[in-house]
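hey so i finally got around to running the thing on that chain from the lab meeting. sorry it took forever, my laptop kept dying and i had to restart like 3 times. anyway pasting the input first so we r on the same page abt which one it is
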Amino acid sequence: MGFDPWDAAFVADPYPAYRELREQGRALWCEATRQWLVPHYADVSALLRDRRLGRTYLHRFTHEDFGRVPPPAEHEAFHVLNDNGLLDLEDPAHARVRRLVAKAFTPRTVERLVPAVRRLAGELTGHLLADGGGDLLTAVAEPLPVAVIAELLGVPQADRGLLRPWSQAICGMFELRPQEETARRAVRASIEFSAYLRELIAERRTRPGEDLISGLIAAHDEEGRLSEQEMISTCVLLLNAGHEATVNTTANGWWTLFRHPAKLAELRADPHPEKLSTAVDELLRHDTPLQMFERWVLDDLRIGDTDIPRGAEVALLFGSANRDPARFADPDTLDLARADNPHLSFGAGIHYCLGAPLARRELEASFGALLADGVPPMRLVREPQWRDGYVIRGLRELLVEF
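ok and heres what got predicted. didnt touch it at all, straight out
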């Protein structure tokens, strides 16, 4: 089986194909996606830090100069929202925005949320236990990070049900070759979410609180403040990036544990915080929630024996890099005590995930709550199916019982 991101069997288990790619070379042309695939850990890690690559090219080139067709005008609302967020900005704008966001999104902010994270994880686990089981995805994996991000941003309780549907619609555009209906949903969600946040920002300007939006409004330095669009795009990115990976790591991680009952039994017998933290990192490595990270080639470069010209696109295969035997001993083996584990699931370089510490806290809290004393072992009801979509890879559901 080769690299085929639209094939259900490949999405369910891409790792054999990755093994073949690593054996074939360091940079491989994929005609179906019109990208250079990069499957090796050392190359992916280095290219994430290489400024000859960019998440965008618009800070240096026009679409025409770069040999690309501008996106359709009817998609503008999505691109305005997306292009002003940290994930797609490049320096110097990226450095300025990240510095200002970091003033509001501090380690103290994360630590202040930890008690609420643990409380929410315990409550969600209690509801699932009281029901005798259910869909772990919708009962625990989804509501926990969405509630945490909503708490962080200061979104009122009554409005929180809006966030996940908006996020899912927007994230559909990050898949390869999204359909036009996917684009329409993303544009509509971009318009609605932006309008909602614009009102919330206006309210916080008059009545600031201890939430992140108030912090973003207050954050400034010698180069000025965040623009309103940058604040809106930052908030949307924090929701999208701050919960999609956490949702999928939770569900995918439990699916992995169910397939390794001896490892699960060991973890359940001693879910010490340090062991749990190490286990979470291994679950992030073993079945990576974000399989691919794309970059534009801004200046000609060479990977191994392959010359890649300016204007090309490379696909950094996180899932393959995290299973590269050149970096990880027995990479296909789930080792919940793996000590040397510099996985790339949160990226690297200037685009390293700003919310990684919070994501880890959420994952430790949710796994810890479900493994706690007094919570009987969960059992899988039936083998889950994977959602359509390869880049952000996750299950449709994960039905469990106690």
